[in-house]
Design brief:
Radius of gyration: 12 Å
Strand order of the largest sheet: 1-5-4-3-2
CATH class: Alpha Beta
Number of helices: 2
Order of helices and strands: EHEEEEH
CATH topology: Double Stranded RNA Binding Domain
Structural class: alpha+beta
CATH architecture: 2-Layer Sandwich
Strand content: 35-45%
Largest sheet: 5 strands, antiparallel
Distance between the termini: 34 Å
Helix content: 25-40%
Number of strands: 5
CATH superfamily: Sirohaem synthase, central domain
Length: about 90
């Protein structure tokens, strides 16, 4: 099994970060069928065919952890790069 572990620092209000993350998560859902479900204001479960993980929003960072199954392993670097690109696009502008 392969894993994606991202800790992404940011310096904006947590409400803005959550709205920004929803946009990113919707894009991932459309492209890779990775569904998301917020279980609290700061925690989100990620799931899909061959993907299980969590996203946690802290006051100054976002943690993303996902386990990829056998069939998703070839897409690890692509998914990871797309997540970082989207985070940079929304949080660095």
């Amino acid at each position: 099994m392969s894993e994606i572990c991202i800790n992404y620092p940011f310096d904006c209000h947590i409400d803005h970060s959550k709205e920004t993350l929803k946009v990113m998560l919707n894009a991932l859902e459309e492209k890779y069928a990775i569904q998301h479900h917020f279980i609290s204001e700061s925690e989100c479960n990620l799931s899909g065919a061959g993907v299980n993980g969590q996203l946690t929003i802290h006051n100054d960072s976002i943690d993303i952890y996902a386990k990829l199954g056998f069939f998703m392993m070839p897409f690890k670097s692509i998914i990871e790069k797309e997540i970082l690109d989207k985070l940079n696009e929304h949080f660095l502008n």
